[in-house]
Amino acid sequence: MIKESVLNIGFDDTDSPTGMCTTFLAYKIVDLLQKQKTEFLDFPKLIRFNPNIPWKTRGNGAVSLKIKTRNPSKIKNQIKNLVSKYSDIKNGANPGLVFFESDIIPSEFIKFSNLALWQLINRNDAKKLAKKYNLDFFYEGNGQGLVGAISAIGYDFHDHTLELLSYRKKIKFGTERKISVKSVKEMQEKTFPYTFNSFDVKKDRVLITPHGPDPVFYGIRGENVNSLIDATKILKSNEKLDGYMIFKSNQGTGDHLKNELNFETMKPYASGTLSG
Fold first, then answer.
1. Rounded to the nearest 5 degrees, what angle is found at the Cα of 231, between the Cα atoms of 226 and 233?
2. What is the pLDDT of residues 41-96, one digit of tens each?
């Protein structure tokens, strides 16, 4: 009998300002793996890294998955194909994809991930780390996505929130998102504090819908699965969606502010806090 192995999959920088989304790629990968009855060992992880990175597309988020499989080679090839298919390379995406077969994440990956939360990391450092551990990795463009890919695998949760992201059908990409403002207000009133950052009362502004051409219709952030699902039942829109997926995330945890900046660490694009 073929032994099952634990496979960690990290990927980043598959989108551009003009389209696509790394979480949408994750949605497509999970859909593929579910059809093959793959065992998932955790939620898909959506990790927001240093928000000050100048070339970030939107939230500087990278994604990782942790699964069990008897056929890692087949899955790796399938995912490589999906990364190529759903990366907006022609408009500046520099996707990176990393596979790591082990249930135990090396401490060096965790340190690398911690640095990515608040510092600017050279993509060559990511390539060196991948080669040092003999990782199976793949990239296009300049390989900047390898930084987020390794960091997403190495991220160690001490606190987390969840985010439910809904996705549009392809025919709707780039068109205006129409959702009942009243329903978003009602959703926030009924589900807060178990969901958060959904509606800005002072500015009378919906916060759950992005404004770009990416595939996301809305994203609801919260503390537990039931609250997120309940929230979707309150929202009203005439648009028929492709589906949704819930991610485990570091959003709203203060992750990027835990480092106190000083004379030595206050480098360009670093994030953290100052005291004095």
1. 100
2. 999 999 998 777 776 666 688 999 999 999 999 999 999 999 999 998 898 889 99
Q: Which residues pair with 46 in a beta bridge?
A: 63, 249
Distances (CA, A) of 122 to 42, 129, 139: 29, 11, 15
The full length of the chain comes to 276
Distances (CA, A) of 68 to 3, 98, 152: 10, 16, 18
Handedness of CA 139, 9, 92, 27 (dihedral sign): positive
Answer yes or no: are the C-beta atoms of 53 and 135 closer than 8 Å. no
The overall longest dimension of the chain from CA atoms, in Å, is 63
CATH class of 5-154: alpha beta
CA distance 247 to 29: 13
Top-tier CATH class for 163-245:
alpha beta
Q: What distance in Å separates the CA atoms of residue 275 and residue 262, rounded to the nearest whole number?
A: 9
Instruction: For residue 22, give both structure tokens.
Output: 């790394």
**pTM to 2 decimal places:** 0.94
